[in-house]
Structures are given as structure tokens and as C-alpha cells.
Amino acid sequence: MLAAAQTMDERALRAELRQQARDLGVAVVVTDVVLPFLNAVGRAWERGDCTVATEHFASQVVRSWLNSVALSDADTSATATATAIDPVVLACPPGERHDLGLLCFHVLLVGAGVPSRFLGSDTPLPGLADVCRVVGASGVIVSATRSRVFEAHGGALRVLARHYPLAIGGAGADADLAERVNATLLPADMRRSLAQVVRWHRGDAVGLTVSA
Ligand code: B12
């Protein structure tokens, strides 16, 4: 896939993702193919083995595949039934453009039957609170690659956590930050995070709690 990205071979990249999804299922492709692929692109970029343009191209192909599977999963009967359940809302704070990890998590949630609304990168936090109110969010998941992005919005996140169970994830999230903003820290391992959010959403685990 890295070779296909380097030669801008979109057809080969898409065909590989489609084939792997047929063989392994979407969830496994997200955790075992897409995330390692994005990291491989990142390492190649850091080594100077691929250009910023290649990284943008790979990110866009992955994004469009993730969007297409999220849409088709949202139409399946399991998730259609689940629309009666309050959704989880997913967003990156202002200043954070790295939203592909969160989009991967959205696809995993939808596939597991947890209704999810993905707002993506650079989301103004007052707007995020509005969306939560409109959809009657059962919880909010905010992710960022750099801890300073969370720190810059600590006050607004604490306010959000007073109204909705809040969880933070991504490479910029840590236990100390989570404690400071009254959030639950989601593990970097997306399978473990997914299991935690699914349990919490079904209401059979302490998982995320609303602070007083
Ligand atoms: C693609 C990319 C971009 C794309 C983002 C595309 C997109 N829409 O997501 C673009 C080009 C926009 C970009 C911009 C920048 N980037 Co950039 N980017 C990357 C790159 C190559 C890959 C990131 C990625 O998607 N990785 C895949 C993710 C999913 O993997 P991961 O972050 O390791 O996440 C793991 C876990 O944290 C977890 N996880 C991730 N998200 C979530 C969410 C939840 C809910 C959960 C439970 C778990 C979870 O799952 C993963 C598997 O374990 C990395 C390099 C790298 N090695 O990662 C740099 C990198 C993240 N970028 C970096 C930087 C510095 C920037 C810029 C500041 C560059 C610049 N000077 O403009 C800007 C910042 C823009 C902004 N305002 O946010 C640095 C960050 C360093 C740091 N920690 O401070 C990195 C590490 C590159 C580097 N070594 O310098 N970038």
C-alpha cells in the first residue's frame, strides 16, 4: 500500500482496502491495516522517503474509504435500530487537523452498533456543545495528537464535561490531562477503547461518568 501511495496509484490502494475488508471485515482492516498504514506513511514522511503531497494523497484515499464504510454501516439494520439510542459525538478541538484516528474510531463505533456523529477536525467547542444538545448526546469523545491542543481548551472541555460524559483519546491525551478536564482517558489501543465505549454505551460499566 505504501508503494501504491508513493506512485499515487489510487485504484490499487482502493482495491487493496476493498479486498482486505472482504477477507478480514471492516473492523480488522481499520485496526490492522489502516492505522499501521497511516503510521507507515508518517514514518516514511519523517524519514524523507515520501513527500507531503504523498501523505496528503494517502490520507485522502483512506478518508474516502472510511467515509464510505461508515455510511454503508450506518444503513445496516443493527445500526438503524440503534438510532433510537442517543449518539456519541466525536470531534477534534480547534487547532487540531489530525482527525483520521478519530474517523477510524467512528467507523469502529458505527460497526459495533453504537450511533456516532463525527464532526472531525477543528471543531469550535461552543458548536460542539450545541450539537450535543440537539442530538441528545450520550457522551462526547474529543481527540488530539498534541497535548497542548487539549491544554489550550481545558476550560471549555471542563464545562462540556459538566453536561456530558467526556472522554479524550489520541496521542495528545494522557491521564493527567484527563483528570484536569474531568474526562475518561481512552486507551491508545482502539480495540480496548471500543470495548470500553460499547460497554459504557450499553450502560453496564462505570466507564464514563458525568461529574458534578
Ligand atoms: C497525516 C498527518 C498530518 C495531516 C493530517 C490529516 C488528517 N486529517 O488527519 C496534515 C497534513 C493535516 C498534518 C498537519 C500537521 N501535522 Co501532522 N502528521 C500526520 C502523520 C503523517 C500521520 C498522522 C496520522 O493520522 N496517524 C495515524 C494515527 C491514527 O496514528 P496515531 O496518531 O499514532 O494514533 C494512535 C493512537 O493515538 C490512537 N488514536 C488516534 N486517534 C485516536 C482517537 C481515539 C478516540 C482513540 C480512542 C484512539 C486514537 O490510535 C492510533 C493507533 O495506536 C503524523 C506522523 C505520524 N507518525 O503519526 C504527523 C504528525 C502527527 N504531525 C505533526 C505535525 C507537527 C503537524 C503540523 C503542526 C505540521 C505543520 N508544521 O504544519 C500540522 C498540524 C496541523 C494542525 N493544526 O493540526 C507531528 C506531531 C508532533 C507533535 N506531537 O507535536 C507528527 C507526529 C509528525 C512529526 N513527527 O513531526 N499532519
Automatic annotation (TrEMBL):
B12-binding N-terminal domain segment(s): 2-66
**A Pfam family name for this chain?**
B12-binding_2
**MF-aspect GO terms:** cobalamin binding; metal ion binding
Q: Which domain of life is it from?
A: Bacteria
User: Protein name, please?
Assistant: B12-binding N-terminal domain-containing protein
Q: What is the organism lineage in this UniProt record?
A: Bacteria, Bacillati, Actinomycetota, Actinomycetes, Micrococcales
